[in-house]
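IFIT5 protein
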Amino acid sequence: AAEETQGYTISKDSLKTSLLQLECHFTWDLHKEDVGLEALEERILDHIKFVKECNITDYNILSYVCHLKNSNEEGLRNLQKAEEAIQEHHPGEIARRSLVTWGNYAWIYYHMQRYEEAQTYVSKVENSCKKLSGTALGKIQLPEVCAEQGWALLRFGEKYYERAKNCFENALKSEPDNPDFNAGYAIAMFRLEGCAWWNNEEMWPCLEALKRAVELNPNNTTLLALLALELQRLKQTNEGERYIEKGLQKTPDFPGFLRYAASFYRKKGEVDKAVNILKEALALTPNSVTVHHQLGLCYKFKIIQLKKARYPPQEEVENLMEFAIFHLKTVIDKNPLFYSPYSDLGNVYALGKRYEEAEEMFQKVLHRNDIPCVAKQLIYLNYGNFQHFHMKSESKAIEYYMEGLKMEKDSYGRKQCSEAVEKLLKQKIERGLGHATAFSTLGLVHKLNGKKQEAIESKAHKNPV
Ligand SMILES: *[C@@H]1O[C@H](CO)[C@@H](O)[C@H](O)[C@H]1NC(C)=O
Ligand SMILES: *[C@@H]1O[C@H](CO)[C@@H](O)[C@H](O)[C@H]1NC(C)=O
Ligand SMILES: *[C@@H]1O[C@H](CO)[C@@H](O)[C@H](O)[C@H]1NC(C)=O
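Structure:
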């Protein structure tokens, strides 16, 4: 019996070694700490429901998400659906199209301690790779598998976008005209460019990639909307709007497109139009975190607009406030990891003079250490503004703007923190208040900004010889 146990242990080890060789979601370094699992699951289910293309990629990643949520049985059911879709859409290439699905099967069975079934799927993958590559080792890198990894990475958030772009680039080396690979590449570039903007980094040139993706995927209005948003970024709003209008005609009921269309109009300042589109999207996907978040932002924007009037319409403001709070609370409820709705909600409470609730919201994110630097700087900026403009505390405002500035990464938020604190300090100095501290803090601002000369001058002011 001892021997049997030992033999069994050895095969379990070698099984693990084989599993680690597989190309599938379990070996792609996708961490559950980086996503809100519930929200991700919801998003994939919505996509399956509305997209016209076949669902293989979605069912594969869904099986992995189910595993992360400790529901392996549900994971297996989704893999079965992936298999059915493969049989329906690629009856002539079952082995080639099933590698990721079978890899996920093997891993889920392994986690369920059903080692024989796991081994069966490992063997299926290994044998198929040998056949497909025509070599005994069976090492093979199929472009479809690269692309599938790219799609998975894109779903796991910002940290993964650069790797996603590389995957699509690799896939394109084998098939430069493949519509799906071009779509993935363009989407990854678009998202990287969005991040670069917040990071104050050089832009990623994604206009050409988007144009090419649209050309190769003429029916895909999601890509059309991204092209429109890119043109808007490049200040070619009118051309962009023509694409949005075209998309609205073609797929008036595809939520993935509607969200981007709404985003386009919100950024253009046509908030009522954005709200109407978002309401349609919400009717189609009532649990979408993105739609709730965008609605919250639109209502917040409307409140700010109305409050600019000398006599704001009180009742309307109150109503909008309730809507904004409802939608932002829903977002937090559905994806507590997502950080920006906390300061958005904090800002809304502040607009309604509900300062305690605002404070509570900001405190929830100020102390979190899982938030990327660039986002944290924006949170400090928002909280600094809250202290400055609502709580009328210049010293606290300065303290928090400085926190944002002390984080070294150059970003939009850091720049805003720097400008805000510099302005505040200069005002203080002009009014002859808090002279010495104001000067030394200003010196620190310049030092943190690398303006050595000004730091020296400011020091000279403080200690006049
Ligand atoms: C994707 O899955 C959904 C839900 O099962 C189904 O209605 C739809 O027809 C599938 N898409 C394709 C192209 O098979
Ligand atoms: C685009 O959609 C039209 C109408 O539904 C269809 O006839 C055409 O085959 C589609 N083109 C592609 C490339 O999928
Ligand atoms: C466009 O393609 C992307 C990538 O395959 C997909 O996620 C999206 O749902 C598609 N949009 C439409 C409208 O078909």
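The chain has a mean pLDDT of 91.
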